[in-house]
Amino acid sequence: MHTIYNVYRVAGMTCDHCANSVTEELSGLANVTDVDVNLSTGSVTITSADELSRPRVAAAVASAGHRLAD
Question: Which residues form a coiled coil (predicted)?
């Protein structure tokens, strides 16, 4: 098994509540082993055991009330 790291910028993620919501949604995706949110950069690093498609990540982030930055 291999480990994959993906970093995405999340628009409007500015507080702990935002970070917790995004973390909860992304952690629920299959094969995700860790989610690390950095509020100062507005980014999230997702560690997974398999590839995650951008649309799948975007849908999870949208469920948390945010969107991926372009």
Answer: none
Query: What does pTM read for this prediction?
Result: 0.92
Domain count, the chain: 1
pLDDT band, very low/low/confident/very high, at 24 (cuts 50, 70, 90): very high
What pLDDT score was predicted for residue 70?
A: 81
Q: In Å, what is the CA distance from 68 to each residue of 2, 3, 9, 60?
A: 25, 22, 6, 10
Domain that holds residue 40: 4-68
- Name the residue among 8, 26, 36, 10 with its Cα closest to residue 63: 26
